[in-house]
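Ligand-bound model needed. adenosine-5'-diphosphate.
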Amino acid sequence: MREGQHAAAGYDDLPDGVVVADGSGTVVAANLAATRILDVQQSELVGVPLAKVLPLLDPQGRDWWECTDPYGGLSTRVRQPERMLSLVRPDRPDLALLVTATYVRDDKHTVERVVVCFRDNRARAKLERSGAELVSVVAHELRSPLTSVKGFTATLLAKWERFNDDQKLHMLQTINSDADRLTRLISELLDVSRIETGRLEVRKQVVDLPELVQRDIDSRVAAGEAADRFVLKVESTLPELWADPDKLAQVVGNVIENALRHGGGTVTIKVGTDGDYATLEVSDEGEGIKREALPRIFTKFWHDAKRGGTGLGLFIAKGIVDAHGGTIEAGNGDDCGAVVRFRLPAGTPSFAD
Ligand SMILES: Nc1ncnc2c1ncn2[C@@H]1O[C@H](COP(=O)(O)OP(=O)(O)O)[C@@H](O)[C@H]1O
Ligand SMILES: [Mg+2]
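Prediction:
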């Protein structure tokens, strides 16, 4: 047993479980991670047959040791590729493990040692599940506008003569806006993927933040929003801001859009300074962000189902602000609705930027 403990000592810092068996299939060493994952003492592992220590079944329910036959199989085989296996013990729920094995052979190709490595697969399984959830949310989000595009187009094609111009116009407008929504959704998804893979490119140049906000307001007014819904307040001295103007316009547009759609009343936008930071604050006079929603609004797909939207806006805004080295936060004002504030480092960028 002392020898077993000694042999495993070097492996104790590994995050993965390691169990070593001798030429007869008896466990001679196990590291700390192995005892943790298997939830047993080291002394309960050493001296016990390998297949008893790790009762593994493959996804088809076959005994992995019988299938791989480490001591009797091909005399040239030196390893088993990584596989997802279930550890099945009567005393506890099945455990999903990612398992690999190495066979150490002597001159005559006889197996001297079998080293089995395994890791708890729960973290990876969770990641895969969240990937699958993402696919299902995205598919759902894409499907509803597409259903309307397809439905109205098919109706118009089949029954063109039966509709008057007003009806046709209405259908075409719906198709047009749903197609816009699809385009927006897809470009948002591309942004999400860039943010998540760290591929968001920030091309910095001098940005006039008040002008950028004013342009956003102007285009909304041109599109029919009442001009008196917006108040822009700009501090007299502003620092020089280096940022990516297109990306910043996206953040500003998103936050103002939220104030209009989820909030209400007058939307006040303040551009200012806070130490070495340029700041921008957007507040509205709506009901504010629900208290229970506050911790979640910057996460992907979290949104108020009643008001359309994809729930990607603030996630992307945060991704862009983070990429600039800034911070974004949201809350509710005492006498107004939601307040969304972000800060961006101001001043000439260093050469590292
Ligand atoms: N100004 C606001 N007032 C109230 N709720 C807001 C405001 N801004 C954002 N929210 C809440 O945060 C959620 C997430 O916003 P966002 O990520 O932009 O997604 P979307 O606008 O597509 O719903 C919104 O669905 C809404 O519930
Ligand atoms: Mg939004």
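The chain has a mean pLDDT of 88.
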